[in-house]
Amino acid sequence: MPEMSIHDLTTLLRECAGEDESVNLEGDVLDTPFADLGYDSLAVLQTTGRIERDFELTLDEDAVAEAETPREYLAVVNHQLTDRSNA
Amino acid sequence: MTLTETHPRGAAAPGPDGPDGSGAQAVVTGIGVAAPNGLGTRAWWRATLAGESGIGPLTRFDGERYPATLAGEVPGFDPAAHVPSRLLPQTDHMTRLAFAAAREALDDAGVDAAALPEYGAGVVTAASAGGFAFGQRELEALWSRGGAHVSAYQSFAWFYAVNTGQISIRHGLRGPSGVLVTEQTGGLDALAQARRQLRKGIGVLVTGGVDSSLCPWGWAAHLADGRLSTRRDPATAYLPFSADANGHVVGEGGALLVLEDAAAARARGAEVYGRVSGYAATFDPAPGTGGAPRLRDAAALALADAGLAPGDVDVVFADAAGVRADDVAEARALAELFGPRGVPVTAPKTMTGRLAAGGGALDVAAALLALRDQVVPPTVHVAAPAEDCPLDLVTTARPLPLRTALVLARGRGGFNAATVLRAPAG
């Protein structure tokens, strides 16, 4: 199972929750907090639902909620993807 | 005869606009419109004076499957042109229309929301069912594909307070805010609540109503009401006060207004459309209890609130139900107050359909522009009122000296409201 990339994530964020006009999602945003990217908790929740459907995953709710940046969020998603492919 | 001669309204007059002693006088300094016969105030008002109707066959969904096939849909609305990308996935169509109207109203007023005190401006809107189309889509997702497919934004996008909240967030209007749900009287009731906040010292209020429920779910509710016209000809479907009345057509849209205190508006050099001088709301007796409907009382109380007499009113914007019994009741109320054919009466909603929470607000916008331009917009499609509706019904745009307008509304379930608007002082 391939890992989810930052490009995959920003694409889904854009589709699920739009894009703040003042933010460049193509830039180096791995360590930019979601709040600074214009995404509130509902935007992340909406995107999480989409990822769970697309990847047939159930993400750890607490871990997702604690992820403040795309890097932290991707770590949660990819950890579960890896766990699953090793299972 | 001018009103100034009969009822001096100079600075010496006690302030009927501020009976609580605050002295605040509510004036409208900005108007934003999304209507079936025009998006934006300018386009809508031009069409309204020209008698151009926005009622036509439903396009939002397949109306042919339903007994009623006509509606008033706002034309040419491009959501991306009015709504930031971040807000598109979380907004119903009616909220998007409200964004457009709110922005237009604030721009028109020249209010810089960012420069206001943090809690110095609020939002009070009217609503009926919230984001019905959004809600229908998510319910379909729930039942056909499961809970994981329901948008997280369903949590608020369907909600009837959503327009108030979204406008408040987008423009940073964090003062006292709220929503009123009183069907077709909502637009007037919201304006009155905004006026109350103004009297408490809130400097700026965005108020009015923008509504839409043009989806199969919403349509089923409208059909259940039993008063939708099932005629298929846009020219004969909605004929209020006509002997041939056959129910009403539903439309979408409405208006949002910027309300300010007169002195503050004057101090910043704002252009004033008019004053909100009087308001009253009444509630009909329960069906079967034998009491009379109380629309007339609402009108009389609103005039008293404004410190005016019926003879001061130059034009009435009617509720115009389009249902015979209700039309006769409204005509009787007007005849009792003003005498038979005693005042020009109009119903520009014949060009838009009834807009639920947006209806009263759009009529207020029409009344304010009528006062500005000294012309009464027409009631279309109605050749003449029925014999039992003794009204001076304005069926082509009529230039008149106008100082005072009375706007009436009735909401399903027994709501009545009346608002008195006056031309700017001086």
UniProtKB/TrEMBL annotation, chain B:
GO terms, biological process: fatty acid biosynthetic process
The protein, known as: Ketosynthase chain-length factor
Matching CDD domains: CLF
Sorted UniProt keywords: Acyltransferase, Transferase
Chain ranges of the Ketosynthase family 3 (KS3) domain: 23-423
PANTHER family membership: POLYKETIDE BETA-KETOACYL SYNTHASE 2-RELATED (PTHR11712:SF322), POLYKETIDE SYNTHASE-RELATED (PTHR11712)
Sequence segments annotated as region (Disordered): 1-24
Record family assignment: Belongs to the thiolase-like superfamily. Beta-ketoacyl-ACP synthases family.
Membrane-spanning segments: none
One MF annotation (Gene Ontology) recorded for this entry: 3-oxoacyl-[acyl-carrier-protein] synthase activity
InterPro entries documented for this protein: Beta-ketoacyl_synthase, Ketoacyl_synth_C, Ketoacyl_synth_N, PKS_Beta-ketoAc_synthase_dom, Thiolase-like
